[in-house]
Amino acid sequence: MKHLQITPIIFFVLCTSIIIRAQQAYYGSDVDCSIKGTTTPPSPYYLYTCNGYHLSCQTFLLFNAQPNFTSVSSISNLMSLNPSKLAQINKVGEYHKFPSGMEVIIPVNCSCSGQYYQANTSYVTGDDDTYYSVATHVYQGLSSCSSLASENSHDPNELYGGLELLVPLRCACPTENQTKDGINYLLTYPIYENDSVYDLSQRFKVSEQTTASANGLTEADPVVFQGTTILIPLRTPPSSNQTIIHYPIQYPPPGSTPGPGPPLVVAHNSKGRHPLWIGIGVAFLFIICAAVPIALYLLRKRAVGNEKKKRKRCVLPKDVLEYQAGAGHALKVFEFEELEAATDNFSSERRLGVSVYKGVLRGNIMAIKETFKDSSKEVNILHKLNHFNLISLLGVSSGLENCYLVYEYMENGSLKDWLYNNSGRLGNWCLKQRIQIALDVAEGLDYLHNFAEPPYVHSDIKSSNILLNGNLRAKIANFSLARASEWKEGGCAITKNVEGTVGYIAPEYLESGMVTPKLDVFAFGVVMLEVITGKDAVIQLEGKEKLLSTVIMCMLEGVDDGDKLSDFIGPAMRDDSQIDLVIPIVKLSVACLNQDPGSRPSMEEVVSILSIIQSDLQSRVML
Ligand SMILES: *[C@@H]1O[C@H](CO)[C@@H](O)[C@H](O)[C@H]1NC(C)=O
Ligand SMILES: *[C@@H]1O[C@H](CO)[C@@H](O)[C@H](O)[C@H]1NC(C)=O
Ligand SMILES: *[C@@H]1O[C@H](CO)[C@@H](O)[C@H](O)[C@H]1NC(C)=O
Ligand SMILES: *[C@@H]1O[C@H](CO)[C@@H](O)[C@H](O)[C@H]1NC(C)=O
Ligand SMILES: *[C@@H]1O[C@H](CO)[C@@H](O)[C@H](O)[C@H]1NC(C)=O
Ligand SMILES: *[C@@H]1O[C@H](CO)[C@@H](O)[C@H](O)[C@H]1NC(C)=O
């Protein structure tokens, strides 16, 4: 145990020298609460030091969804946040459930309280909680054991269930120098297994040097440890498209790490020679101490796993299953074990998207989507629809906890990926294919609005929900937000829970929640612009974020509309002589984007105009 007590002292000496120079000091290994007696504040083991330009700021933490904290409501409760705020910044609905291991952005108000920055929340203890387990497991290192112990008067050895703890969360505001460099936020990031400063800097688009210096890290490739946090300096608030899903960490259940908990890893240190030995000592102790609880935990987990298998939670619509049994419908019901085998136990190599996997089922390649929300609606809708331009639902399955929907496999992935990641292929402008894709989507929507019985509004048309098959023919996917259209002239369905994606949402929907087919027409207008210009629905222009639709509409308002537009999309075009065919398509998109839903064309009209443009192009090619 001697080594363990030396570590903090060496650390303290090293860190205090760093504090003087750096923005904040990285505190290396996760230390137990006994450090309380050996350091005098300010110490990075507590929280981040109050040394910023401002005494308070709005900032962000990242939290990884984990069992019991996957829903918007449970995470906002854990962080004392308004659920609608959390939903908004993560671009999800208020009833959304994040997959375990998914990063969730937590906005907080961070302020100086004495020597440390903190954002307060509260937590009611469970029977087996310790300050250590609350800081490290529940809050993933976003709080610290030492600061929990100092903010709460309960004896660390006598915590029991039902106590309300004040939980100070680690946060910090930029220093004067950082502010001058354009850094506006310091994102508190809880280190995950295998994270490196280099990878994180890449992902958040900051230089490794800037990240390292924000954390007082001086080495070229500093080691960072799970259970600790680092600050990532950002110019703009973090965006939900920067978050990723990690392989979920299985924390041992509380109680199997008695007392203040073991120091997890070797100390990070830039100068000392001792840490190697300390490291070996710690690692050795750790192995001894951890082996027994881990073995017990694994045994227990297996027992729990077996129990779980017996109570399935996924519910599939009964009538669909009965219908299936009766009428020889194509929808198949797969055994969960079949899906496991088809996807190598849902291995990451088989992953196509956040929770979509590729698998070979009964001899055919299929796409298997794991869903966390009630999917009976989507199943009910899709099994009734049958159109070449709508994705086919081939089967369903209920797993241990989630439902699985099995779709036809689309070789070329989403239109979004195709447009932005494969720019070598379609990127080099092939007008014929682009028009075909737009027409495919238009025909799918026309069917949905005008021929399906009852008619439906998709409500979430965007380039990532349009999939391309091997021949680059497009199909509309993801019907989780679709609803029956009650719409008649003069009437409409109203929805309270506005869901959708920034850049594609029609103005009347944001204002009043009006659901009409014109909602899809608007979103289709945006997709058509993306297809034609090869640009994202939200773009950076002159350093600002702008909607693609707004930019194009401004260009068309000018007198020299053709010139400006061809400058804008020109670089992607293979053949300048086709620009005169592009203009009517852009104008059609702009008509779809009319602020007044009544003035937008119907999908039927869109289809007929696009067909004319398509045959125009074909006759030109023939000449
Ligand atoms: C989730 O919460 C339930 C009840 O509050 C508790 O029994 C269970 O241990 C928790 N699970 C985890 C993984 O924390
Ligand atoms: C931060 O404080 C402001 C002003 O008091 C408040 O409007 C806002 O909701 C707070 N934000 C969070 C994330 O708590
Ligand atoms: C957080 O809690 C501490 C300790 O109770 C208190 O001093 C501080 O004012 C609180 N901060 C905020 C922003 O409420
Ligand atoms: C801020 O930058 C200036 C000039 O580069 C430097 O002299 C000063 O030490 C820096 N301050 C801090 C606190 O790092
Ligand atoms: C971390 O890296 C090790 C070795 O490369 C690997 O075995 C392990 O699966 C990785 N863990 C995660 C969560 O990716
Ligand atoms: C992420 O979204 C922001 C706007 O929220 C946008 O500026 C940025 O380009 C997007 N990045 C990617 C990789 O899509």
Automatic annotation (TrEMBL):
UniProt cross-references to InterPro entries, sorted A to Z: Kinase-like_dom_sf, LysM, LysM2_CERK1_LYK3_4_5, LysM3_LYK4_5, NFP_LYK_LysM1, Plant_RLK_LysM, Prot_kinase_dom, Ser/Thr_kinase_AS
Occurrences of domain LysM (ranges): 187-232
Membrane-crossing segments per the record: 276-299
Keywords, ordered alphabetically: ATP-binding, Cell membrane, Disulfide bond, Membrane, Nucleotide-binding, Signal, Transmembrane, Transmembrane helix
A GO molecular-function annotation: protein kinase activity
Residues of the Protein kinase domain: 319-613
Cellular localization per UniProt: Cell membrane
PROSITE patterns in the record: LYSM, PROTEIN_KINASE_DOM, PROTEIN_KINASE_ST
Signal peptide (residue range): 1-22
Gene Ontology cellular-component terms listed: plasma membrane
Principal place of residence: membrane
Annotated membrane topology: Single-pass membrane protein
UniProt cross-references to Pfam families, sorted A to Z: LysM1_NFP_LYK, LysM2_CERK1_LYK3_4_5, LysM3_LYK4_5, Pkinase
Name of this protein: Uncharacterized protein
Classification lineage: Eukaryota, Viridiplantae, Streptophyta, Embryophyta, Tracheophyta
